[in-house]
Design brief:
Layout: E1 2-5, H1 23-30, E2 34-37, H2 39-42, E3 52-55, H3 59-63, E4 68-71, H4 78-94, E5 99-102, E6 113-115, E7 123-125, H5 129-136, E8 140-143, H6 144-148
Parallel strand pairs: 1-2, 1-5, 5-8
Antiparallel strand pairs: 3-4, 6-7
Helix pairs in contact: 4-5
């Protein structure tokens, strides 16, 4: 079983209330190969919500208490992002997922590049929080961009 970012199958879970639907991911769910999930909603964040970015690091740094997640209004939402990551890991273990396909660049789901915390569109290397937690637990994380190549 594969977990896939819920926004990729057309569920309106993005911060702006929209989605990133792609037929490839919809078909994985229809075929019973994937389960959609949104870590940010599972962590208690509303939809829509202010965009958020990791400040001073990446997902590993957040998990280690060395960085935090703030939204564009300056509110610290680290706790919600960590909770969402933990809920995602719980689901992955429950369904015995060996891999996940997540939306690229997200502070939760980004697998190798995330926004740098300046809200300027600049990217920096490293995973988002949920991706980092899953990787630490031996679950392969694939970005949606990589999967579609």
């Amino acid at each position: 079983m594969i977990l896939v970012s819920a926004c990729l199958i057309g569920l309106n879970t993005k911060y702006d209330g929209g989605n990133n639907i792609n037929r490839v991911f919809v078909d994985l769910v229809k075929q019973g190969k994937a389960i959609p999930f949104c870590p940010e909603q599972a962590g208690g964040l509303p939809t829509p919500r202010y965009p958020a970015e990791i400040v001073s690091g990446n997902g590993y740094d957040v998990l280690d208490g060395k960085a935090r997640v703030v939204n564009k209004e300056g509110m610290n939402v680290t706790k919600e992002f960590i909770k969402g990551a933990q809920e995602t890991l719980r689901l992955a273990k429950l369904v015995q997922a060996k891999e996940v396909i997540f939306k690229a660049k997200s502070p939760s789901c980004g697998s190798s590049l995330i926004y740098d915390g300046s809200f300027s569109g600049k990217l920096c290397p490293g995973p988002g929080i949920t991706a980092a937690l899953l990787l630490r637990n031996g679950i392969k994380v694939i970005s949606s961009d990589e999967y579609l190549k």
